[in-house]
Amino acid sequence: MSNKESKKIIKKQNIANEKPVSLKEEVESSYIDYAMSVIVSRALPDVRDGLKPVHRRILYAMHKMGLTHDKGYRKSAAIVGETLGKFHPHGDASVYDSLVRMAQDFSLRYPMIKGQGNFGSIDGDSAAAYRYTEAKLTKIAGEMLKDIEEETVDFSSNYDGTIEEPKVLPGLLPSLLVNGSTGIAVGMATKILSHNLGEICDLILLLINKPEADINDLFEVFQGPDFPTGGIIFNIDKMKETYASGKGPIVVRAKTEIVEKEKDKHRIVVNELPYMTNKAKLLTKIAKLIKDKDKRFEDIKDVRDESDKQGVRVVFDLKKQAFPQKVLNNLFKATNLQKTFHVNIVALKDGIQPKVFTLKELVEEYIKHRKNVIRRKTEYNLLKTKQRIHILKGLVIAIDYIDDIIKLIKNSEDKASAEKKLIKAYNLSETQAKAILNIRLHRLANLEQKKIRDELAEKQKISKDLQDILDKPERILDIIKEQTNYLKEEYSIKRRTQVVQSGIQRFNQEDLIPDNPTIVIHTKTGYIKRVSPQNFRSQARGGKGIKAIHLKDEDQISHILSTTTHTRLLFFTSQGRVFQLKTYELPQSTRIARGKALVNFLEIEPDEKISAILPVTDLEKYNYLVMATKFGKIKKVPVKDFKKVRRAGLIAISLKKKDKLGWVKPTSGKDEVILVSNKGKAIRFKETELRSMGRSAQGVKGMKLKSGVIISMDIIPSDKGENFKLLVVSENGYGKMTQINKYRVQSRAGVGIKASDVTKKTGDLVGARIIEDNKGDLLLVSRKGQIIRVSLKSVSTIGRSTQGVKLMRFKEKNDQLTSFNVMSE
User: Residues with catalytic annotation?
Assistant: First the structure.
């Protein structure tokens, strides 16, 4: 039969064996197989060790090559070849690109590989070819592979069945949580951001101790992403939603500062970029916008990249009279100086099932994996220990019957015969018999015999402990805690990314106003303004100062505050109500201008006066507001009651007729309060003597006044010891400081002790203030509108029963001091 005829017969047989297949079903089946292959074998990380197959294989290959952190480097080409040849039969570019990324400190928060040579840059420069670079594992990468030889994880055959590779690494380091992962699969993608190891360790410990913890509990120890390139994250409430659901947006901005070069000339300096921002491309885009005369950037005069090995530094020089905050906000809006990361926490559960994880579930999966690793390690060590105990027991038998055993061996024909006789005569196992036959003669010495018995006792003790670990799950959790504390102590580094509470999705008036220092001046008749601190230069103590404001009729300055333009101000009125404004909403005026009436800004009644003003910057860290009146009443209200102040105001305190609210201060709940009267008396008592009250309560007696009124209430923080002084100022321009330990702690509602020697020369006291150190300046204001700025260092520290020193002299005979404030340096 010819070949031609044979082929025809075979063809007919094949046709007869063929079965019709649905094209739709075949395509669906093939596509699903392809999709799962991409998902499992390439694109998504395993939730247990946080690695994709290529990264796991690179680390394991380097481990087998002995490239630990304490050894020398090897060419990257050798590592790529080892990985390709034994574990990862794909292109060399895929392996080398992954190796490079694991070595970049601007890509990973905790790099797994230490590179030597050109491994790329934040400007998008590629790494040198693998024949030029060298690499080895970092110390922290060693924690990923720790105990892998102790059967802690499952292995499977490599692609050609010649050797085995791990399905997952033991992963003491929670890599997925600290380094994150990015990948695009078929029909799904993952975007997991990097985090701070110290915070992740705290999360692990929290969930071990409190498994029922919710997202709010987690955010007690966890702040959010911590990028290797730093930056600023906004809107913590939105971030909570993201981590509670496993997906959502996180907004990141560059870290910037506005620097004043000279008068009316500013520059914007960028010190940190959002994660994965290509600096070179960013600057190219900005340069093009400026070149195209985009109106948003017409005030940018020059752009320079001054980055070096110390870090990123991009400088924008602005034209004269430019509004720097406005330019900066336009840069955020139009460029990658602000980026939104759409988090999607997708990983493989048990190495096969794609799943969206919440933050809590990620930590729980890590704990579950580590429990399994520790259990398997314990089982492995227990088995090895029992095997050693078995041999040692055989050796002890040999020592006990050494003469008989030697005689038995001498009378045996060969080793095999001796082995059989030993097994039969002393009921030994084959392993024990071989160990006896292999024992060296020097082990029969008395000292060596003792070592064998001691080793047996020690191994039995270890065996008992290992079995106890397996029998008690709580002991495995204790080991995880111990290892977590070790990770935190050994590798935890300071957070680089700052987290800001408020959101930034809309650019409002506040975004266009720089947060600069300012002085707020408020008068008795209700006029208010803000001025620059530069208007008041520092002078020597005892000077006359300068005119601060043009006052009419019998008006005088009642409040002077040192704050910033973005600070929220709480205004407390004579009728016990509270209002709020942002400082920048107040009119900015010249030094001697009168300002504007406060009724233009607040809905206060005609006969209602402002009696206290509280600048609010970090009120969240306090628990209470303490209020005091001029007749000695005092009360404590929870801070949360003032978080939302309506435009029409809120009731803050109920006041008796003729009494007046004078002072409001934030406290922790464990501080001390000091009240001072105009007649030179002061009382110091613990805040715990005040119970928390509602906003409408009148309060309780704080100080018993035999004469005069209260002129000051201040707080002594409980966490800073006695390193404070009390500054008192009198109406005739005298003042002094006294160590706070000179004022003993008393019970509330007493008459107090002497704080100053009030005489006709000094006049009554007009104010008092707790001073932590002598840094900063004192602003003193007179009834006629004179103001002087003197250094706190020039104010003498003397005893309680003294008059003080001259701080200010007056231009007019009938002028007196009315108020003062302290400015920080």
Answer: 132
